[in-house]
Structures are given as structure tokens and as C-alpha cells.
Amino acid sequence: MMKQFISLIMMTVMIWVGTNSLWAAPIEYERDVKPIFAKHCFSCHGGKKQEASLRLDLKSSVFKGGDSYGPSIISGNAKESPLIQFVKGEDEDTRMPPEGKLLSGAEVSILTKWINAGAKWPDGGHAEKQKDAQDHWSFQPMKQAEIPKTKDQKWARNAIDAFVLARLEKEKFRPSPDTDRVTWLRRVSFTLTGLPPTPAQVSAFIGDKKENAYERVVDELLNSPRYGERWAQHWLDVIRWSETVGFETNLPRPNAWPYRDWVIGALNADKPYNQFLTEQIAGDTLGTDAALGFLVAGPANLPGQIGRDLEAMRQARQDELDEVIRTVGQSLFGLTIGCARCHSHKFDPITQGDYYSMQAVFSGLSYGDRRLRGTQNDTWSAQIPAVGERLATLRRERESLQKQHHLRASISNVQTETFEPIRAKAVRMRIEATNNRGSASLYEFEVWSEFKKDQPAQNVALASAGAKPSASSFLLANQSRHFDNLVDGSIDRRQAFPWISAKGGPAWLRIDLSEPETINRIVWHNGSSIPVDYEIEVLTEGSDSWKRVSNTQDRLPRIDDVRAAKDVKISGLSETEVLEIVEKTAAIRKTESEQGRLARGPQVYAARFTEQPNKTWLLGRGDPMKRVRPVAPSAPVFLGGSKLALDAPEAARRLTLARHLTRDDHPLTARVIVNRVWQHHFGAGIVDTPSDFGKMGAAPSHPLLLDWLAVDFVKNGWSLKRLHRQIVLSRTFGQSSKPRKEALLVDAESRLLWRFPPRRLEAEAIRDSILSVSGKLNLKMGGAGFDFFNQRGGLSDYKAKETFDASGWRRMIYAHKIRMQSVDIFGAFDCPDAGQMKPKRTRSITPIQSLSLLNSPFINRQASFFAERVRSEVGMEPAAQVSRAFELIYSRVPRTNEMQRLTELASQHGLEQVCRVLFNTKEFITIQ
User: Fold this and answer.
1) Between the CA of residue 706 and those of 155, 164, 686, 730, 917, what are the distances in Å?
2) Which residues make Cβ contacts (< 8 Å) with residue 889, sequence separation at least 6?
3) Which of 111, 536, 539, 908 has fewest C-beta within 10 Å?
4) What are the CA-CA distances from residue 492 to residues 374, 471, 521 (Å)?
5) Alpha carbon distance 291, 879 (integer Å)
6) Of 536, 619, 666, nearest in space to 142 by CA
7) Is 403 exposed, middle or buried (0-12, 13-18, 19+ CB in 10 A)?
8) For position 77, what pLDDT does the model report?
9) Phi, psi for 73 (deg, rounded to 5)
10) Which of 342, 328, 335 is nearest to 133 (CA)?
11) For 862, left (φ over 0), alpha (ψ -120 to 50), or beta?
């Protein structure tokens, strides 16, 4: 028995020792840790996906950490290691995995012991090599390759031709023959100015036999103001510029147009692109305020649309700045930086930290009007002293009238009416008129008890004190405008709403007190329309009759009182005396308005800045309520952006970004803009995704050509006009657009440029060309735009104008641009509505296009003007009319069959019908 007992004890000891030695064995990464990571973590933090830029399959990434925190593992200290804090799941906001089952207690224990033991990670544990997203072609330095040598040494006219021909020869293609002079002239006129050449220009070019005839045409077009109007539209598409705010109200931005005019002027002046870019980021530091319209081109909520709680305000601010980052990122960098708002970019080396560092650059920015400095501003400022003297004189004269007629002061915004103490059980205000003829409106109506030594005065007209309000009516709106608002005790306009009568004209409100009170004062707070003709009555204790305690008929009218003299009641004054006071008040109102306008100066809707920007935080998953850590302003680090101090001066942040973008060796800036210019000459860019040069964008069709042009562009002063000149004078641009069957089978889109790719004109060029041909094009430049609709903003009820006067015959770029509202007729031709950035327009073909060009009132009227022009130039003979119409619209004479059929149409149905047909042809609306 004793032997059995000893054996049992020895077995127990052996089992205990064996088990203890097992647990005491060191934890190994490959055997113990990696399986846990693979099971729970690699799906979001592995080779295919890296949330917050964190990979748990790479040693270097784990010990570096992701965007949101520092190192995920602190060797030897599991307690302070973020990884352990997350997997324990004690904080719902940071638990990992974020969904599903948490790690088991045993798994957490293994990770904890592993970290406390030094988190040993063998070299083999991170042998997998991470492909560096920075190896992408567009992130590499630009290199200007040697101009290639080609088999055909005669065809190339410049470097562009050599690169294009080298690619064609590689693919065993041959270029197309040169196009004829007229086709080339129409082509270059449309691409550079958006207008067809006139018959006089065609005749002069055909007759010009000098060697530099083509160069002279290009110089003439580039020096035309029409060039800036044409190319500004391309830029406005890229940044989705509009003259309304978008979103829920889509209200007008009446002062947005100076930015459009600035872009046109900058392009016409051939402002170097690096300067063009810098002024749009930091124009306030350079005296070009209008250029700052670039930063706020996108949609934004108005303050009244934003909730008043902290989360709503933070979210709205994040949305505002996100629009700025998307504008800058896509238009200038050619990158979708905005995709890194909630997590690091899925494809490009843009971290979430990069996104918020970019946000920090613009953290001092706000949307709104700002002073537009310049000649007009100086002129207005010089007028202020004289207007001030005139205003002072008018005020003295009005004060004299007040004293002469013994009138009390005007009603104020917060008006107090005092009277002898009276015992009251209810108070009533009967309103006859308001200052602006609108519905009566008050935020709060207070009834104050008499002050006594042992009892301070109190507002007894509070719902909390039992007061009961009523009124003649109230307005139904998206928020309450009920009379209950009169007694809610709140005058904070950020939190409270007013009472508003349902309609203009007479109205009343009444407050029944919870019990009779001795009162001697009424205080009311104005709403949107201020009562200026009213009386206040009290229902006394023990009586059913109302006693008047105050009225307005012995007061001077308010300055903003717009009532006619016949509607103003002032006791004891004749009609002539009242008229004198009203006219003097109106003169002051007009002069004050003029003084205010001059003092504010000309305005432009553009970015405004505060000198002390708020701190910028990296946000967990983009949630404005999950602030992780402050970030410093910087461009994306992988592009060489250097971080400034957290408290760097506001303007220095933007100037630093501008200097970063305009470095001669920046890998993206020049490539992106050169590609945009190329796109609008050939219909597609060398990179067919013009605002996405990242990994998910298209590869360049001619990468060596793109880099050669970009480097040459920078070397030669960032001149856009020089770049245009190079392109349109190339033999590549001058090829015939006629198709070749064998080439189409291989390259249907003509991406290899074996011919000039023909395409339909954009909506604006079609409308402008119609007006040009009809003789009605109004070439007035600048200023507020004309209207396509009956209103300039709002969400609905738009009615398209069917006819226009001369102001509506301006170039279409001068139309008031309404966001998210397609333009009648020309919207069918893929005209963007500024709801989204549109760096590349679609070119659809639909029946609606043809029907619009044939039947709309606008087209029919322009066809009549076109016919009138033709008749005035060549008389009434049908053949001469048809011939002249062809010269004006097609820059050629009609063919025999065209002449026959159209003269018959003119003879039978009138020349106007011929003109309708010509407007509705492919030849007219196509760049051949």
C-alpha cells in the first residue's frame, strides 16, 4: 500500500514538472504568434489590405506602427503596447477585430507573454517583400529622354512627331497624310478658341503662301481673347466650379464670377503655370484675391444647414475641408488624396496621416466672400470720405426733425416698453405693419414684474412659469415657427427659433399669465421682420377690457423701415411733415447702404483665412469624434513633403505647399497639366485618367513623350501657350482624320495617333459656334453672367428660358453656373452640372441631341438670324444663299448634290429651314 502511494506521488510530481516545463518553454513567433495573427488580423492588416497603413505580417511595419498610433508593439512591455490594448477589447471604439469574436483569453495571454519576453521575431518571419507602391511610374523623377531616331527621317516636324512616329513604327503602323488647309484651320480654331474661322480668315490663310503661314495663324489664335474663354472652361470642369452652393439649398454665390474672369485673364496673359497654381493656393499673399475662388469651388453647406450639436459641427467642418483637399489633390497632384480620409489609400502610398497633414495646410480656411483688392477697390475707398460727410449731414437734419416734432427714438432690435405699474392677467400685442412688409416675427416676448425690495423683477411670461401664448397664426416651415417659441426663454439664435406669422399684414400675439401680476415693462426680441406699427394692451385683474399701455405713433421711423409715407402713422403730424421724415429716412438708408458697399469694397466668393488655425487631428476612421493625435501641415510625405511645426503660421502653410508643387523636379505637377493640355487637343490624354495618375489610373500611351514635354514645359518657363504651339504645329496634330480599316481593327480609338482622332464639339463650343455663324455672338467679356433659367439658385422649380436678348448671346462660359442643374438643349451634349469634378467629359450620341438642334426655340430663332445674315450678304438668289451659308458654317462651298437639294428646300420652305438643317449636321459639330 505504501509503495502504491509513493508511486502515485511520484507520478503526480512528474506530471506537474512536465506541465510546468511545457508552459515555461519560450513562445515562438512562427509556432505560437503568427497563427493568431493569421486567424484574426491578416484580413485587414496583411499583404492584400492594410487598414491604417499597418501590416502585421511584416516585422518592420509592426514595430513602426500605422497611421493612428506609434509602434503597435513595445518590446518587453505588453501593458503599454497598443496591440494588447486593442485585442483585449475593453474599449469598444478601438477593439480589434472591430467586429465578430474577440481573441480568446489564451490567445491574449500568448501575445502578452511573447511581448513581455521581448517580442522576438526571427528574420524569416518577415521575409515576404512588400511591393513598394512608390515604384509607380508617375512617382518617379521626370527624365527627358533623347528624341528617338525613326526609320522615316522626313516625316517628323518636331519632338512630338518623333516620339509618336517611333511608337507607330514599333507597332508597324504608318501615320496618316497631312490634312488639307481648311480642315486644319477649323481644327486649330476649335481647339484653341472654341469658334469656327470666319470666311475672311479662311480666305486669308488659303492665300498665304509664306513658310510661316501656319505659325502666324496659331499666334493669332493664341493672342485672341477667345483663347482664354475656351481654355478656362476646361479648368472649371476639372474643379467643378459653380455659382451655387450645392447640397440641400443650392443657393446662389453671387460674387463667384470674379474667379472665372481671373482664370480667363490669367490664361490670356499666359501667366506661367507655376504662378497660376501658386496664386490659387496663396493669392491673398500676392494681391490676387480672386484666384482664391479655386479653393472653395466645390459645394458646401451654409451655416443654417449645419446641426448645432458638436458632432454635427465637426462633421460639417470635415466635409468642407474634404472638398478643398479633393480639389487640390485631383486638379494639381492628379491624385485621389481624398480616398485617405478614413484609412490609408488602398492603392497609392498616401497614408491617412498624409490626408490630415494636407488638411492642416488649409485648417485656417473658411468659405465666403472676401474683399477683392485692385483698381476698383482703390476707387471705392477714395469715395468713402465724401459719402461719410453726406451721411453726417442727413443724420443731423433727421435729428432736427425729431426734436422739432418731439418724437421718441426709433424702435430697436431688442425693444423695451415701460409704463406705470399695472395689475395684469394677460398681455396682447397688436401689430399693424413691419419694417420690411414681411410677416411679423419675434424671438421672445418678455413681461416683467415690478421690482420690489424683497422681490426682484422677474419675467413672468415664461412657459416654465405657467404662461400660455397664442397668436393670430404661425408659419409652417421645416422647423417650428410656432408661438410657443415666444415664451421658451431662449434668445440664442443658434439654438432657438422665432415665432413668425403665417402671412404679412396685421397680426397679434397674446400671453396669458399663470396668475395676476403687477407689471411695468415689456421686452421683445426681433425676428426677421420687425414690428414698427403696433400697440401693447393689458387685460387688467378683475376686468374683461383691454387697456393700452404703449404704442408706436409718437416714434421716429427706423432707418430700415421701407413703408411708403402714406402708410406711416405719426400722431399730430400732417401728411407733408410725415413725407419729409420718410424721405429723409430713405435718403439716410440709401447713403448708409452706399457707405457700407464702399467700405466693404468689391467682393469675391473665395477662400478666407484666420491667422490662428485650429489644431488638426488625425481621426480614427475619419470619425470627427475620434481624435487620435495632432498632425502637422505637410504635402504627402512620399512626394517629399516636409512637415512644418504644429503651430506654423497660416499663410506659410499654403505657401510651402505651393512651393512644393512648383518644384522643377516635382514628379506630378508638370506631367498632370501637360497631359490635360494634350487631352483637349486630341480628345484623350496621354494618360486617359487625367485626374488620377495613381496606381488605379491608366498607364500612359506615350510615357517618354509625356516626360519629354513635361521637362521641356518646366525648362521653358511653364508657358501654356508655348505648349499649345508645340502641339498644334506638330505633324501629328495636322494628320488627316480619315479612318483606315486595318488601323481601326487594332486601334479603334486612335490612341497611337496614326490619325487625328475626330470628335464632337462640347456643348459650349456648339452654342458659341451657332451664335457666331448666325452673326449674333456677343463678345462682351467679364462680369456677372447671363441666366439660362428663371432663377439663380434653389433646389427645384427651374424653368428654362427659351429666348434670349443680346446679353444671353454671350459665350456660354459667361452663363450663371447652377450646380446640379442641366442646361436646356446643351445639357444633352454632356455639359457638366458641377456636381462632380469632370476632368474628362463623356461624348454621348442620343436622339435628344438631334431633336434639340432641330426643334428648340433657341435654334429656330438663330436659324432665322442666320438666314437674315445670309440674305443681307448675298441677296435673294437661292444658290448664292446656300453657297454663302456653307462658307459661314462649314468653311467650304457646297457639293453638287448638296447645292441641288438645299436650293430646292430653300425655294419650297424658305432659307430658314436650310439653316436649321445645317445646324443639325455632324460636320458642323465635329472637330474633323
Assistant:
1) 20, 11, 7, 15, 42
2) 196, 773, 866, 918, 919, 924
3) 908
4) 39, 22, 21
5) 52
6) 666
7) exposed
8) 81
9) -125, 130
10) 335
11) alpha
**Residue written as grid cell 450646380:** 819
- How many CB atoms lie under 10 A from the CB of residue 21? 9
Confidence of residue 129 (pLDDT cuts 50, 70, 90): very low
N-term to C-term CA, the chain = 111
Let me know: does 705 contact 686? Beta carbons within 8 Å: yes
- C-alpha cell recorded at residue 813: 462660359
Sign of CA dihedral 104, 109, 114, 119: positive
Q: Which helix (H) or strand (E) holds 363?
A: none
Q: Which residue has the cell 477593439?
A: 95
Residue carrying the nine cell digits 487594332: 746
Hey, is 513 helix, strand or coil? strand
514: helix, strand or coil: strand
- Distance CA(419)–CA(694), nearest Å, equals 75
100: Cβ contacts below 8 Å, ≥ 6 apart: none
pLDDT in tens, 71-84: 778 778 888 788 88
Helix (H, G, I), strand (E, B) or coil at 193: helix
How far out from the chain centre does Cα 849 lie?
Answer: 28
Tell me what the pLDDT averaged over the chain comes to. 92
Provide mean pLDDT across the span 527-548.
Answer: 94
Q: What is the pTM of this model?
A: 0.84
Rounded Cα–Cα distance for residues 344 and 350 (Å): 6
Whether pLDDT at 377 is above 50: yes
pLDDT digits (tens, 9 = 90+) for 143-176: 999 999 999 999 999 999 999 999 999 999 999 9
Cell numbers standing for residue 781:
467679356
The set of cell numbers assigned to 894 is 457646297
Cα dist from 22 to 25, 107, 776, whole Å = 5, 16, 95
C-alpha cell at 136: 509607380
| Beta strands 414-434 and 507-526, pairing class | antiparallel
